[in-house]
Specification:
mainly alpha; two-stranded parallel sheet; 17 helices; 2 strands; 472 residues
């Protein structure tokens, strides 16, 4: 492997992970804007990275049927956008999906170029960012206990995201990763103790947030990994005691200690852990009505947000969202692609169920992360929020790089390669244009939304994601 190329990939990867860390430093509603801009920075550099380096095209990441399906999905999205009520916003969504795919490709090529050496970098990044957020959580909790106000708002302990559900999505991606050092035979006992402590703290934060989608996602991942053989069940045996410790810590902090100090709890986890749909019913009904009205091409990408409702700018259900906006045929193609990839990965994991190789164990944790995220996307906006989209790109890209083909897929020909690079470049340019156009006027746009509709913000592309705003 060319040394210069390897060096460039590491530089890009480190730069990307640094941006990903900065993306969760924002507070309140501004966190969503910071994360979207950070995502655009990552995708922009990914396109430049792939354009400047020709080495990645020495091998293929996907086979011909997958490339054909992706091309058809892209074509359907463009056609749907041209027929949409607001074509520019629809094309912006298509551009965002294309940019995320390009980002996943860049992650995959980085891993292929550098080999297992960057797996440790990824693990260190996950441990660092989870440790930092855990420290932030404990610091805010200490300040709340010491403030002496008599009220403890657990929602205020989850910083960096405009909504605690988005924090929960991030945790669904990272909880499976934190078990990796515990699975490795080379990990020292002291390191195992620290890692298990961090995993337990991360579960404490998950319990505090009360995001039911995280519990559903991790439950789905646990069920799938149970059938993955010995390594999958080892993963479960580390996660379950960490959950127990996390629940006990929550009880000690926010029940025993808070009660002893005479503090009243606000936004307690028990208030969110219910079996209701939390207003998802009307959203799903709206999406279903849209599907019935325009089944073939949908209303256009992002156009669930073009029909205002007082709840949300997306239906909190990935399949309904894609079908209502992109059309049923596109949805079936995407489901086929996802299902085919998951089945291939599951088969490979089961074949290597007794392997203690770090690469095989990393694949297992990545697979658990993806299963958890996809499960959560059935009730939450995992495919909508910028930080979750970044993690989807990372997880999918890394899994593609680690996949072992029975027969290596042929590399794409020059026409397909440069067509894809042209589309990716155009997508990034459109996203940059939208950012330059909107960011200076986001406050004005938010005020206009409040004047016309009122109510809370509904995140989609921006923190106020409703595009059904009439210009003044």
């Amino acid at each position: 492997m060319n040394a210069a190329w390897t060096g460039r990939t590491k530089i890009w990867l480190v730069f990307t992970l640094l941006i990903a860390a900065v993306m969760i430093f924002g507070h309140g509603l501004g966190g969503n804007t910071l994360q979207r801009l950070g995502q655009l920075a990552v995708t922009s550099t990914a396109v430049v990275f792939l354009l400047c380096c020709r080495m990645p095209y020495a091998f293929g990441l996907v086979d011909r049927p997958a490339r054909l399906a992706c091309g058809l999905v892209l074509l359907a999205g463009i056609v749907s956008s041209l027929y949409a009520h607001q074509p520019l916003w629809a094309l912006t969504e298509v551009a965002l999906i294309a940019a995320c795919c390009c980002c996943a490709e860049a992650f995959a090529h980085s891993r292929r170029a550098n080999g297992a050496s960057v797996d440790q970098l990824l693990l260190l990044f996950v441990v660092f960012i989870c440790a930092f957020k855990s420290f932030d959580f404990l610091t805010l909790a200490f300040r709340s206990f010491a403030a002496g106000t008599g009220i403890l708002d657990t929602g205020g302990l989850l910083s960096g995201f405009s909504n605690k559900r988005f924090y929960g999505q991030f945790q669904t991606f990272t909880l499976p990763f934190l078990a990796l050092p515990l699975l490795l035979s080379t990990t020292k006992r002291s390191a195992q103790a620290w890692t298990f402590s961090l995993l337990s703290l991360w579960w404490l934060i998950a319990v505090t947030g009360g995001t039911r989608g995280t519990w559903l996602g991790m439950g789905g991942a646990t069920c799938v990994l149970f059938i993955c053989g010995h390594s999958g069940r080892r993963w479960i045996t580390w996660q379950l005691p960490a959950v127990v410790v996390g629940v006990m810590l929550y009880w000690l902090l926010f029940s025993v200690l808070a009660g002893y100090l005479g503090m009243e709890m606000s936004n307690a986890a028990s208030e969110r852990l219910t079996t209701t749909l939390s207003d998802r019913g009307p959203l799903w009904q709206q999406a279903w009505d849209m599907i019935r009205e325009h089944p073939w091409l949908g209303f256009g990408p992002m156009h669930f947000a073009d029909i205002h409702n007082p709840i949300a700018a997306h239906p909190h259900q990935a399949i309904l969202q894609w079908a209502s906006e992109w059309g049923v045929p596109s949805t079936l193609l995407v489901m086929g692609l996802v299902g085919r990839g998951l089945w291939a990965t599951l088969t490979l994991i089961r074949e290597r169920a007794t392997s203690g190789d770090p690469t095989d164990l990393l694949r297992l944790c990545l697979f658990a992360s993806l299963i958890g995220a996809l499960t959560q996307s059935m009730v939450d906006g995992v495919i909508v929020m910028p930080y979750s989209q970044f993690w989807l790109s990372l997880v999918v890209g890394w899994l593609m790089a680690l996949h072992v083909w029975k027969r290596e897929p042929a590399k794409p020909n020059a026409f397909i390669r440069w067509s894809w690079m042209g589309i990716s470049s155009a997508a990034v340019l459109l996203l940059v244009y939208v950012a330059i156009r909107d960011v200076p006027h986001l406050d004005e746009r938010d005020k206009l939304y409040q004047q016309q509709y009122g109510g809370h913000y509904q995140p989609r592309f921006w923190v106020q994601g409703v595009i059904a705003i009439k210009p003044e």
